[in-house]
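On clarity, I found the account of how folds are encoded harder to follow than it need be. Since the whole study asks how a given chain folds, the encoding of that fold should be made plain. For illustration, here is how one protein appears when written out as sequence plus structure tokens:
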Amino acid sequence: MVTPAWVRMMAEYNAAMNRDLYDAAAALDDTERKRERGAFWGSIHATFSHLLWADTMWMSRIAGWDRPAVGLKQSGKLEDDFATLSRRRAETDAGLSAWAAGVAAAWLEGEISWFSGAIQRDVTRPRALIVTHLFNHQTHHRGQVHALLTQCGQRTGDTDLFILVAA
């Protein structure tokens, strides 16, 4: 069941994992981060960029944040500079945590409507489902980045929720 406490826990986990993955990626040079590696978004950098884009897009729908400046197909190139991408990731994670701190149970019970560019139609879904999707999408692509970083010889530390998030 999606509760306000679950949303806060997932925002905390999201931020912890992003810190660890970005720290590991920072040990690589730009060429290695941007090397095509066969992942869905190609490279470590492009996958990070897509994740930032997706988080910003979902939060524009959920909480009124500004929409990303590019569309889905260009999301892997949202931010070319790794230092800027890292800074924006940290700011986005702080914003997600601040938003999560204010989520109420009654809000989660409502619905959200938007036009989906991915399927080219209007969509209405339960907010709890969309918030679950937001965090699930992050976990999915971070898993890809974790595998790519491991292939590059980088260590990211623990990835287990029960280890990274205090009870």
